[in-house]
């Protein structure tokens, strides 16, 4: 990787610098739009004591669920945790700290972190355990709680296409949390299906500008379906 070319050839290069105790922000929603190869690389590295911020924690044996098998995750910040039996077991056994966060609040925490906004007020969660211990202010007669932004040592993101400068496009619903996650990492690594030359992505179509991206790697994806539903 040299100059403006942010492409790396190996997953070892992609995740170089990840250490025990760091915070990793991961894009994806369920199994849609997850950086499969980057997650697998963290599994291979054996990095431990991680705080992982993501909408959910994958499923048993796939996605972020892989990192539960060797108890690499110390704390999970997420909005939905219902598809993973190992997650449930570790939570109930006190082996995994979990910070449940409303989904929209979680997305805004990432976006605010990437924008340099340290905190924001939201009505979501007021009067519930989510709001316990948080500052409350009233605006136009309605109470709001103060939520702090999130940033991470690493952000791992899955995009459809990127150029060598790191400008990214996401495909359909695989966009989900990825654009917000991409802005919130000190080091942002994007795993893509296709890498193109600079100028091949029209500026008006770029979802994540390359200024946010440190490394790009071309991956291959299983794109597993989390739950298949068919009609009679």
TrEMBL record:
<dbReference type="InterPro" id="IPR037171">
    <property type="entry name" value="NagB/RpiA_transferase-like"/>
</dbReference>
<dbReference type="InterPro" id="IPR004165">
    <property type="entry name" value="CoA_trans_fam_I"/>
</dbReference>
<dbReference type="GO" id="GO:0016740">
    <property type="term" value="F:transferase activity"/>
</dbReference>
<dbReference type="Pfam" id="PF01144">
    <property type="entry name" value="CoA_trans"/>
</dbReference>
<keyword id="KW-0808">Transferase</keyword>
<protein>
    <submittedName>
        <fullName>CoA transferase subunit A</fullName>
    </submittedName>
</protein>
<dbReference type="InterPro" id="IPR012792">
    <property type="entry name" value="3-oxoacid_CoA-transf_A"/>
</dbReference>
<dbReference type="InterPro" id="IPR004163">
    <property type="entry name" value="CoA_transf_BS"/>
</dbReference>
